[in-house]
Amino acid sequence: MNLTFKKCLIAAAAALTVCSARADEGMWLLQLMKQQNSIDMMKKQGLKLEADDLYNPNGVSLKDAVGIFGGGCTGEIISPEGLILTNHHCGYGAIQQHSSVEHDYLTDGFWAMNRSEELPTPGLKFRFVHRIVDITDLVNGKIKAGETDEVNAMGYPFLSKLAKEELEKSDLKGKPGIEVRALPFYAGNKFYLFYYKVYNDVRMVAAPPSSVGKFGGETDNWMWPRHTGDFSMFRIYADANGEPAEYSKDNVPLKTPKYLPISIKGLNEGDYAMIMGFPGSTERYLTQSEVKQRMNAVNQAMIDMRGVRLEVLRKYMDASDKTRIQYASKFAGSSNYWKNSIGMNKAIIDNDVLGTKAEIEKKYAEFAKGKPEYEGVVEKIDAIIEKSTPTLRQLYYTNEALRGAIEFGSTYLVMDNIKKALEEKNDSLLQASKKQLESAYDGIHNKDYDHEVDRAVAKAILPALAKALNADELPTFYQTINGEFKGDYNAYVDNMYDNSILSNRKNLDKFLAKPSVKAIEKDPATAYSRSKNEKLQELGKQYGELENGMELLHKAYIRGLGEMKQPVPSYPDANFTMRLTYGNVKSYSPRDAVHYNYYTTTDGILEKENPENREFVVPAKLKELIQKKDFGRYAMADGTMPVCFLTTNDITGGNSGSPVINGEGQLIGTAFDGNWESLSGDINFNNNLQRCIALDIRYVLFILDKLGNCGHLIKEMNIVE
Fold first, then answer.
1. Half-sphere exposure of residue 75, counting CA atoms within 13 Å on the CB side?
2. Measured between alpha carbons, how far is 434 from 430 in angstroms, rounded to an integer?
3. Farthest CA pair distance, the chain
4. pLDDT digit string (tens) for 451-497?
5. Which helix (H) or strand (E) holds 698?
6. 4: pLDDT confidence band, cut at 50, 70 and 90?
7. Residue boundaries of the structural domains of the chain
8. Which sequence positions are flagged as catalytic?
9. I need a labelling partner for 206 at 20 to 30 A (CA). Which of 188, 394, 674, 710 fits?
10. Residue among 475, 476, 526, 517 nearest 496 (CA)
11. Which distant-in-sequence residues (6+ apart) come within 8 Å of 425 by Cβ?
12. SS3 of 351, please?
């Protein structure tokens, strides 16, 4: 189990892959391209550019046209006026934020006809990588000097403090929008400092209706063939000097130093394709025992607990447009990795990932003989995994079930402050805490919250967790359910949702008018919140203790695997830093007698159409355009309209929205998904099956032009015919 994934609840780290690099495998660090000679391999595949055209620390390069969109996606700049292209599912939260029953942009789409119609989106940011600095010697020097140790050097507190110290000494200190992060790579064998320039006036420009942007919905998610127009567009605004600034009507579109030209020349099988973006997390150096732990303790928890919640949400969303809009983003975020976990567990078996890991460990054992720093490392890792798996399983099941349930039941710390203020007769603390409580209420009971939907989720998820875990593994509030409520989950939930202080405005106002210790002690949501969080903290602490020593074992294992592979270069696991992957446009054959072409067309949209199924509704205007073959200059030579295509690029979550670029540095599409048969790819890359599903840029332009009537946006772009 990769440290990054397993400890996402209590820590974060990064690590190095162990698989042999092939032409298409690898999430390469741009700053190491020359050192690792990866540019030569890219040129053999079809790249026409030089290394400095991709990444130039002293000048403008393709790197400067790509950035982090929001909190977990990639976006690219496609015009000199700061126009961003990303996925529809990446912009989904913003689209949902602006949507209401009266202005249902999720259903109808949104097209700004001019700059004044572009919608400010509070909280949405775009980050460019401004500078990358190798700080490995600096960190190792601090370890050697006794200022920290190897384990702490990989941790967030140490690296965060170090990043702030380096910024203070930098020429970038005090510059607008500068953020800095220090991160470990290769399991702490390497460290880099990243300076980002952050723009926070990002406005919504264009989004197709969900019947285009999410065509196929859950059914087609992670599947090929695909016909999803998964794109949306935003624009970066800056002050008059081009610097980051808070929203102002006086801000102007950012004049970007680099943007991607767009090719509509078309694709052929075997064409060079590269992707630059921010892959989130991979776990490719796991031992066999760690893969089993991932399947049984982590993935299965997601499958079981998210499945219960999604079933309830689906029922209420199907019955009400208001609820559908309210919960659209929450549902999409939860269902994506619910289905991913199902597919990953299946692919691990189908692709014999456990057998592959066993073979790697066999080779490693031979390599490690007579090398004390490496010998026995795998066995020590496996021993820790055996001890920690039961606790990790409890942790994930509890977290998956209760983090998303009873949204208003998470304020016991505020209640503790009010109780303390009452007992100590501290009026200033009391007034401050009451304001905190009211703010918490407003944050929960917002436009995207429905009390009765949340109640229904709680009634389903609490008994589901009790069924998944042993009685002695459950939080203490289950004792209240079994005792005071005689095992009646519905009665327990109804009591909380009707009578808790934060359950409705009337109850809150009554409490704020006359707060008392007795009311706090009797409040069911406060008791629930305390019990839930104490259990999660207890499990997190236990797991941390059981995992003690794992960081250094991983560090040694990854270093040894890198040495074992030499002179073949290794790339570090994904950790949401900028990477480049290269490969080719390519079809695949997943099963006997099954062959998938490398592209799909709009013919498939009409073949999948089902007016009775919300996932497969085709807008009337789009249907008419397809039937009339009114595709303009975006069609292929034979008159058909491409939608999606496949490449062999190595991607994962976080790469959503990444540009797919041809050998001449021109945009040909945007990455948005992986294929079902290779969902074990985050753990083990399969060169025969691994495919990136990308949206053809010609379909983006066709939808933008013919469906959205946004020719003014296309005029901004540099289109290569």
1. 31
2. 6
3. 81
4. 999 999 999 999 999 999 999 999 999 999 999 999 999 999 999 99
5. helix 697-702
6. very low
7. 126-198, 288-546
8. 89, 230, 656
9. 674
10. 526
11. none
12. coil
